[in-house]
């Protein structure tokens, strides 16, 4: 069995797909290319699910059943769906692994609020990091993993932008005196060594 809220949501999505002609069987009422579906906080108490509040939820497979059926609907229609999941609240890691396996693309957002990076001047132009856990790969049994590891996001008034994380060079005056002394001593050693080589041998072969 499936959660009643998930079942009603699937019925609503299926009805829109068929009535609006996104399944290809009927002509579209309006000239549209693709049906875009957005679902927020899937798996939370808002949907009557208890996977975020218990280590041993009553119906541990309800969310994965919903995603499995939804994936079949999307494959057979001109539809795409983006889902947000409160992963930091889901205590059972096995559930998150199943959710990842049933998804084409998985992206995680790490906010700087409440962390040390919030006050770090190196990250002052950004509001958080973007972690790409999985990207889609067509005609393959294994999902590809992105090589891009340095993505960050920033929030503007009406925009959510994702860009490569470019950290400026550390030009601050926080270098300790001991490190400066070490650099000075190493410079003296290098200069004295070069002077000794020059005195011992005037003609150098290159």
Automatic annotation (TrEMBL):
It is found in: Cytoplasm; Nucleus. Keywords: Cytoplasm, Nucleus, tRNA processing. The keyword Lipid biosynthesis does not apply. GO terms for cellular component: cytoplasm; elongator holoenzyme complex; transcription elongation factor complex. InterPro entries: Elongator_complex_protein_4 (IPR008728), P-loop_NTPase (IPR027417). One of its GO terms (biological process) is tRNA wobble uridine modification. Pfam families: PAXNEB. The keyword Nucleus applies. Coiled coil: none annotated. Pathway: tRNA modification; 5-methoxycarbonylmethyl-2-thiouridine-tRNA biosynthesis. Component of the elongator complex which is required for multiple tRNA modifications, including mcm5U (5-methoxycarbonylmethyl uridine), mcm5s2U (5-methoxycarbonylmethyl-2-thiouridine), and ncm5U (5-carbamoylmethyl uridine). The elongator complex catalyzes the formation of carboxymethyluridine in the wobble base at position 34 in tRNAs. Belongs to the ELP4 family. PANTHER family: ELONGATOR COMPLEX PROTEIN 4, PAX6 NEIGHBOR PROTEIN PAXNEB. This is Elongator complex protein 4. The gene is Elp4.
């Amino acid at each position: 069995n499936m959660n009643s809220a998930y079942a009603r949501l699937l019925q609503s999505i299926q009805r829109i797909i068929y009535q609006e002609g996104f399944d290809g069987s009927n002509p579209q009422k309006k000239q549209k290319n693709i049906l875009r579906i957005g679902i927020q906080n899937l798996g939370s108490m808002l949907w009557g699910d208890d996977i975020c509040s218990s280590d041993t939820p009553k119906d541990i497979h309800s969310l994965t059943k919903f995603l499995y059926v939804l994936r079949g609907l999307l494959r057979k229609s001109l539809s795409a769906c983006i889902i947000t999941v409160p992963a930091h609240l889901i205590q059972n890691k096995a559930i998150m692994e199943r959710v990842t396996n049933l998804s084409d693309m998985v992206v995680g957002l790490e906010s700087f609020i409440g962390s040390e990076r919030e006050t770090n001047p190196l990250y002052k132009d950004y509001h958080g990091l973007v972690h790409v856990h999985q990207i889609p790969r067509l005609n393959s049994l294994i999902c590809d993993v992105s090589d891009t590891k340095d993505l960050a996001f920033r929030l503007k008034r009406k925009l959510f932008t994702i860009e490569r994380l470019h950290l400026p060079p550390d030009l601050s005056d926080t270098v300790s005196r001991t490190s400066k002394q070490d650099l000075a001593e190493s410079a003296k050693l290098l200069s004295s060594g070069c002077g000794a080589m020059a005195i011992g041998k005037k003609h150098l072969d290159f």
